[in-house]
# Entry
Amino acid sequence: MNLFQDTLIVLGVTGSIAAYKSATLASRLHQLGAQVHVAMTDAAAQFVGPLTFETLTHHPVLRDVLALTAESEIEHVTFAKRAQLVILAPATANTIAKLAHGFANDVISAIVLDTRAPVLVAPAMETGMWENPATQENLETLKRRGMFVLEPGAGHLASGAEGKGRMAEPQEILAMARHILARNGPLVGKRVVITAGGTREAIDPVRVISNLSSGKMGYALAEEALTRGATVSLITTVEDLPDPFGAQMTRVVSTQDLLNAVVAEMRGADILIMAAAPADFRPASSADQKIKKEAQAELTLPLVRNPDVLGEVARIRAEQPAHAPRRVVGFAAETNDLLANARSKLERKRLDMIVANPVPQTFGSDHVKATLLKNDGSELDLPPMSKEALASVILDEIV
# Structure
């Protein structure tokens, strides 16, 4: 689900060195299908030329608060009315002060004062200006009026100093913009719990039993659910993927950790999607110290079965339906008899739907082949696709 497709976005660029990042942001929005109209202050044009943005967006840049459109309409009024989202990136302390006090003496402040679209503000400034009580009070004023503020990060600043004031990266701004646009999505008001990644069972302090699950499918599902307006809780073992913006994150390691988190998080949830790959077995005991290879010629590890996470979910659904999600989706990664094994799991675990994936194409890959099996007996065989595309199909079926 692409929330940016054909969405009219006004991107306001003000006078900060961070304006160079706005060119990347404009380009990415345009690639996502948005109609991007850039408005610039005179100070911003000193950092990045308007031609850059006109080339990237295929639209003239808005500069003059008194300019007219080809239809003799006042430009800033036209775009204030038509905008579905206004993004100010970078927003300087000066612009933030103007907005807080209702000024309209440049094209950006005029558009923001006139629009009824949601406004996302991404500040950029020196640390001292950011920390100044005047700036903080102005930002609180904007928040009270319903604007969204994406705080700057800390790091190296244009002055050479280190501190807080760096504009958020374009990818963070895109994620926040998606979060804002998703407020009218089909899963608004729904709580979705998703699991991701392969669990790890300790052999000793440095060795584990695990599997090849990358967690990418679970993260794609979390992103897609957020796009549709859901409140998302992501239970994950993954450490090397960026957190989906807006998701509540729970970190786990072992299958027992996963079970505990799922039982806790699924209370009050509408949907549970079990995309994680829990280890079926664990060492009967874990050594307190690293096992040294020099101490023995071979190593035998007695294994015991781990708890059955989906089995426990099925039990709770049967015995305490008020504490269980309305819809539960599982995954089956199989090396043989894919559909038969997946159908058996669907029935044994009392799932509403199961996603059947052939191994080894599933683990670690960005693309996957899948068949969706439902508890009404229907099947949906899908062609190979990206995990993002599959996440969209899965959420379509759930909705």
Remarks:
- The longest helix spans residues 19-31.
- The chain has 14 helices and 21 strands.
- The domain at 8-182 is CATH 3.40.50.1950 (Rossmann fold).
- The CA atoms of residues 127 and 164 lie 5 Å apart.
